[in-house]
Specification:
By secondary structure, the chain is of the alpha/beta class. The chain has a single domain, classed as Rossmann fold, CATH 3.40.50.720. The protein is 37% helix and 18% strand. It is built from 13 helices and 14 strands. The chain has a seven-stranded parallel beta sheet with strand order 3-2-1-4-5-8-12, with helices on both faces. It has a three-stranded mixed beta sheet with strand order 9-11-13. Strands 6-7 form a two-stranded antiparallel ribbon. Strand 1, helix 1 and strand 2 form a beta-alpha-beta unit. Helix 1 crosses helix 9 and helix 4 runs parallel beside helix 6. The structure holds sulfoquinovose-uridine-C1,5'-diphosphate (USQ). The site of sulfoquinovose-uridine-C1,5'-diphosphate has 24 residues, from helix 8, strand 10 and strand 11.
């Protein structure tokens, strides 16, 4: 298949591009390199030394003989460029990662809120609009988030996208219907993914676009089979307070002797998936497109749930690291339960990598190898959800 990977230079976009190229697909990355600019804005860098996208694709070609093409296009701003590219190349599938993905970054200031909303919503809408205008029947796969569901403590399992509800008619009869699970975002970033869902629903119904939305949990790990092949194919790894995600952050903190930064009681339960499974799921979704005219296909792309304090305690046991119980910079439930249905990927053959201490060793090795690149001043999470919360943040665990 000819596949356009929007955001193919990012943390999941890059290993996905390699995985699908390795599987024989013709890969075209469209990316505005915004993630690299944000590193510059924040004064941070990936823990792992990362080459330019042109250099990465050159190495991939030298290693495998396969080409990955790169196009510098901003989906949110360059509508005509995007449309012209799609019109010329007419891909069979489009994978859409081209969004600002960090909740803390999206909450930093009014400017960051505007940027995240404008970038994410415009990128998604421009893509849907162009596919429709060009009458292009490409399967659109979008990387969404488990965060669209929110983290209420109801205790019922979260279905894969759609909730069956019984509605009483005027005649007193109960009819049942499936509705999009009510969205309950916890940050401006998560809110943009909720808005994306409505855009998808509209374009699938109105224009018959074939769309798959992957509600992904928190990714851990860094390597995939392909990124391991050469030092210069290495994936990025974020540890800073904005882009570093919880488990990867705890592992680098343990490796550099920094207290593990647990927000609040650490009672937050979240869904997790290993990066290798993440790229496998995308391939499975690619092989199983919805029919034209069908509703948006939704998968819960996660393999297990964990409580933040359990992760911290496990890593503290493994490494001897101390735990810092910090005031929570976020507005979120202090404690929650989380049960998630994920049978759809399991039924398609996903055999998940589960979190075991042995597998964490690999990340600790990466962390130790590149520990000299860590700027400890960038470890604390300083982006507060409200001005009131900002006054309570302790920057120095
Ligand atoms: N947390 C800590 N200490 C830290 C960092 C985070 O206790 O040092 C806590 C947070 O308060 C939160 C939980 O860990 O309760 C998860 O935070 P996170 O930064 O690992 O994940 P999140 O902000 O939810 O976002 C990440 C990705 C996002 C993706 C999402 C999936 O950045 O792109 O959509 O995970 S999900 O969480 O399922 O919505």
């Amino acid at each position: 298949m000819k596949i356009a990977v929007m955001g193919g230079d990012g943390f999941i976009g890059w290993p996905t591009s390699l995985h699908l190229s390795d599987a024989g697909h013709d890969i075209h990355i469209l990316d505005n390199l915004s993630r690299r600019w944000i590193d510059t804005e924040l004064g941070v860098q990936s823990l792992t030394p990362m080459d330019s996208i042109q250099e990465r694709t050159r190495i991939w070609h030298a290693e495998t003989g396969r080409r990955i093409h790169f196009n510098l296009i901003d989906l949110a701003k360059d509508y005509e460029l995007l449309k012209n590219w799609l019109s010329e190349h007419r891909p069979d599938a489009v994978i859409h990662f081209a969004e600002q993905r960090a909740a803390p970054y999206s909450m930093k200031s009014d400017r960051h809120k505007n940027y995240t909303v404008n970038n994410n919503v415009s990128a998604t809408h421009n893509l849907l609009n162009a596919l429709t205008e060009l009458n292009l029947d490409a399967h659109l796969i979008h990387l969404g988030t488990m965060g669209v569901y929110g983290y209420s403590t109801v205790g019922a399992a979260i279905p894969e996208g759609y909730l069956p509800v019984g509605i009483e008619t005027a005649g007193g009869e109960t009819v049942s219907q499936e509705i999009l699970y009510p969205s309950n975002p916890g940050s401006i970033y998560h809110m943009t993914k909720c808005l994306d869902q409505l855009l998808f629903q509209f374009y699938a119904r109105n224009d018959g676009l074939r769309i798959t939305d992957l509600h992904q949990g928190i990714v851990w790990g860094t390597h995939t089979e392909q990124t391991r092949r050469h030092a210069q194919l290495i994936n990025r790894f974020d540890y800073d307070g904005d882009y570093g995600t919880v488990l990867n952050r705890f592992l680098i903190q343990a490796a550099i002797g920094y207290p593990l930064t647990v927000h609040g009681t650490g009672g937050q339960t979240r869904a997790f998936i290993h990066i290798q499974d993440s790229v496998r799921c995308i391939e499975l979704a690619l092989k199983n497109p919805p029919a034209r005219g069908a509703r948006v296909e939704i998968f819960n792309q996660m393999t297990e749930t964990h409580r933040v304090r359990d992760l911290a305690e496990m890593i503290a046991r493994m490494s001897g690291a101390k735990i810092a119980w910090l005031p929570n910079p976020r507005k979120e439930a202090a404690e929650n339960e989380l049960i998630v249905r994920n049978e759809k990927f399991r039924d398609l053959g996903l055999d998940p990598i589960t979190l075991e201490a042995g597998l964490l060793g690999e990340i600790v090795d990466v962390a130790k190898k590149f520990a000299y690149r860590v700027d400890r001043a960038r470890v604390p999470a300083v982006s507060a959800w409200t001005k009131d919360i900002a006054a309570t943040i302790n920057h120095d665990p």
